[in-house]
UniProtKB/TrEMBL annotation:
Annotated segments matching region Disordered: 1-23
Signal peptide positions on this chain: none
Compositional bias (Polar residues): 1-12
Protein name: 3-hydroxyacyl-CoA dehydrogenase C-terminal domain-containing protein
Domain 3-hydroxyacyl-CoA dehydrogenase NAD binding: 26-68
Family: Belongs to the 3-hydroxyacyl-CoA dehydrogenase family.
A Gene Ontology biological process term: fatty acid metabolic process
Keywords associated with the record: Oxidoreductase
Keyword hit for Oxidoreductase: yes
Organism: Scyliorhinus torazame
One Pfam family from the record: 3HCDH_N
Amino acid sequence: MFTNDSSSNQGYIQDDSDGQNTKLKVNPPYYVPLVELVPHPETHTAVLDQTYALMKDIGQSPVKLAKEIDGFVFNRIQYAIIAESWRLVNDGVLSPEDVDFVMSTGLGTRYAFMGPFETIHLNAKGLKNYCESYGMGMKRVLSSFGPVPEFSGETMEKIDQAMSQRIPPDPESLNARRQCRDSCLAALTKLKMDMKSDCK
């Protein structure tokens, strides 16, 4: 079984295909080629391997999860970022616009080319050195994170107002901004394809 659902657990979606279930999480594939392959406990390894090869053949970028996890991987990382971004607005640290600015002009520029582990590996004399140097500081900061936000109430209204002022939530304005987003993603995709393989 295949689905483009981005978070449901495979256990909720059953199929009578002799244990050959596999779950395929697909981001919009035009410019974001990541595909998460999430096996059901009864998924045959050969099915997962064949699906992985198929995705590679059609130009996608698959990753095989070792087991099911709620939300899959992409959304778990994304939700962690959204949650802390929400808390920063809720606590009066930054405006919604400035949170987006920090991500788009700072952290996001690095993460477009390398993940969090490679980033910290390069920011010190290797990953182990980074953890030895900054581990206590990370733990201190992380311990100050608040509870999971409710994603409602005054903070939601504040963020919604900021986003609506920037991009009115009418179809024309939203579609125009989506086209701008897609143009940026297309340019980034082309850049990454044109780069030398050792820099990808």
